[in-house]
């Protein structure tokens, strides 16, 4: 996820400023929920990345419920 945020920052530095990324990753007690909100927003705004993530998860898990162990087996999460 950090790699995606940094990639987007390179593409659109005026939108994805250092301060914004730092707040998302380091600050406050609601960091996890804020990060998840941003991650979902970025995935929805970049459907090609969303489809890649969906395909990888489906390849690892199939129709079963995703577990934490399986999630970390996906290449998109390892980056």
TrEMBL record:
The keyword Iron applies. Signal peptide: none annotated. Transmembrane segments: none annotated. Keywords: Heme, Iron, Metal-binding, Monooxygenase, Oxidoreductase. SUPFAM superfamilies: Cytochrome P450. Belongs to the cytochrome P450 family. This is Cytochrome P450. It comes from Hibiscus sabdariffa (roselle).
């Amino acid at each position: 996820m950090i790699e995606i945020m940094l990639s987007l920052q390179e593409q659109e530095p005026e939108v994805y400023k250092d301060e914004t990324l730092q707040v998302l990753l380091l600050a406050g007690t609601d960091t996890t929920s804020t990060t998840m909100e941003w991650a979902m927003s970025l995935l929805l705004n970049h459907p090609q990345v969303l489809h890649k993530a969906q395909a990888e998860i489906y390849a690892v898990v199939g129709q079963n419920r995703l577990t934490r162990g399986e999630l970390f087996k996906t290449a998109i999460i390892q980056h």
